[in-house]
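User: Hi! I'm working on a homework problem where we have to compare a predicted structure to a textbook description. Could you give me the structure for the chain below?
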Amino acid sequence: MKPLKFYATITLLILVGLSGWQCQIVDAASVYIAHTTTLNPWGNESGLVYRGHPAAVNITLTSLSKSNVQIYITLMDTNNVAVAIANTTTTITEQTTITVDMVVASYAFAGHAQYNIVVTDLTSKLLATLILPTYISVLGDFDSDGKVTPKDFQIFIDAFDYFGQYQEIPHQNKICDLNNDKKIDFTDLAYFVGSYIDEGNSPPSLLNNQTGNSNSTNPTA
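Assistant: Happy to help. Predicted structure tokens:
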């Protein structure tokens, strides 16, 4: 009988050990960021945001159990100044993807930037963190000098299709498709002019440029 009692004791210890191990994983929550991407509703390049305009981050969170979490996101510009802040509460069920919308401050410096993403539980216990690189630009800054100038206006006009007749945008002109609808038209012009004025310029005149482009068959020829 002694061997049976000995084996029973070992079995009990194994069951208790497994039970504790499983509880430990669930209690730890193991909440982590499985996948994160930036969204840019204003252009073609992933990882690019424009100061003074909306931006967003897609975050996929994974947890071993249903968890209520708080997500804090801070966008730091190249001078390490917070230029956008957002926070939201969500419930994770195994794997959950949410979109967090933000607006980049108009005083943000153009250049390399980063999202600092912090996930906590509702008692502020830290669960996960992530640094996501991005780049802050100025809408309409086609020559990447950090501001919108008459030179950018000329680049836009050279790419502009007054009649909407071109189905394919030449590669070098894709940056002027500001709303990413595969054409360069008056909607893009409205976005550009708004940014041009926001940067302290006087409203641009199209008369001379329109006369020059209206008869062309290819704006890049």
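For your comparison, note the following. Residues 1-29 form one domain. Residues 53 and 103 are 6 Å apart (CA to CA). Good luck with the assignment!
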